[in-house]
Amino acid sequence: xxKINLYLHLVIIPIFIAELINRxxxxxxxxxxxKPFLLIWISIYFYxxxxxIKRDIYIYLAFLFSWTGDMFLMFAHLxxxxxxxxxxxxxxxxxxxxxxxxxNIKSDNKGLxxxxxxxxxxxxxxxxxxxxxxxxxxKGPMIPIIVIYSISLILMSVFxxxxxxxxxxxxxxxxxIGSLLFVLSDSMxxxxxxxxxxxxxxxxxxxxxxxxxxxxxxxxxxxxxxx
Length: 227
What we know:
9 helices
């Protein structure tokens, strides 16, 4: 399995580098080839290391909804409505991740956050800060769309933190760090689109996003191995 995983990494590394170069050059034509493959690779890697689609259906749904969101956002520069559709795809992905993380809760151990709700404070403050920056530039249906998605994104990371003590340390840290990078990536999308554009935003967004999905995937594989 280690050799197969090595080969898989040798496949994805040049593709991911090409995706970052495409973003630097703002080359949408080549991006149409590289970007769709990223979440497909994540799904293939997860399957080859776990091999049970029925048992892990919500994980595959999280990957599928993320891929759907990627596809809509990839064409969002052509039509603004596709951005909304992309947000919808990622909203469903966050719900799937929340379901996955809550499955780790046990009757005798609710997890870190549910036992110590004060851990919610930094997440709430972060959410309030981001919304404060961008809400003034949102109009009409975009306001509830972004607010609801932002809450789901933060809750995804909250429940990733809640896994502490419920799973192995390695699985916890991989998933939790991945969830924080996911939050960071989407925060940069929101700030760049609704507050102020910044240099290299496209590269930083993709870099943090793919690493986030990769770490979450590895953490979930680790959890399956432990069980």
